[in-house]
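Structure record:
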Amino acid sequence: MSERRAARAAARPVAHATVRRRRRNRPFLVALVATLGSLVGIAAVVAVAASIFVGGLARSFDTKATTIEDAFPSGARPVPTDGALNVLLIGSDSRSGLDPDGDRAAGGRSDTLMLLHVPADRRGAYLMSIMRDSWVDVPGHGTAKINAAYSWGGVPLVVQTVEQLLDSRIDHVAEIDFAGFAGMTEALGGVTVQSPSAFTARGHAFSAGANQLDGDAALAFVRERSAFADADHTRVRNQQAFMRGIVDGVLSRGTITNPGRIQDFVTATSEYLSVDPGLDFGTLVELGWSLRGLRPSDLVTFTMPTAGGGTSSDGQSYVAVNTLAVQSLSQALRSDDVATWLEANPQ
């Protein structure tokens, strides 16, 4: 009997110690559960706030941006490139009724034409300028400067002309009034551009190298051509520099961590933007997410190959297209291998 009592007595301290250890652990477990609950609650609040913010951006974009219902031509068109995207960017003064040089032009003119090619792997982006005086075949009108297509048939004819020229499908189209360039610049708190040379334009002086631009200066920078001996050649390089500056500004930490600045940028852009029906806010978000790893240096800019100038039978000065080089570029676009083409055709 005494042996049993001794065994029970020896066992009691151990049992008590076990109970005490469990009690000491409970506050930690309670705190952990409370902390996790708080984090989940915070995450839920953040998710709701993000949804409200993105929803507000979507409403702002879809309300302010104009939809081009007939953006694409009817009839046969080139086959899309699987996975890749070609977005035609048109800069115009269509809303003001003035062309970029201040002369009133019936129907307006597309002062800037750029093709954004986004490869299927989303590892880069290629922005190609098409000289506005490029002498091409405009369907239904014969040979003319490519910017005349906008005046004759609006966006659908521009798309048809570019598709025929490059034998490549245009998946989306976005037209922005030039006043939007100033708005975007102001919304980003200014844009830094690299100018290849010093020049003055519309009351602004630009130095060779880096220039910090406000809205008015940005507009003067992208529109000037008379200050340059090679006219549009330097202008398209300046426009490319501006687009790189916009990308730098959008991807900068000061923008992506600033909801107010993002809101201002979307609002400023949307107000002057017209897009095809498929290029809504959801599509842009999806495209942006697929390009989330893109760095500013991953945007490559270049100009569609030209072959000097010429004069038409009615006295128009134009820019001749390098037909052979454009044919190989077309193949590169269709095969989604613009990078290899640029290596073989450096600019």
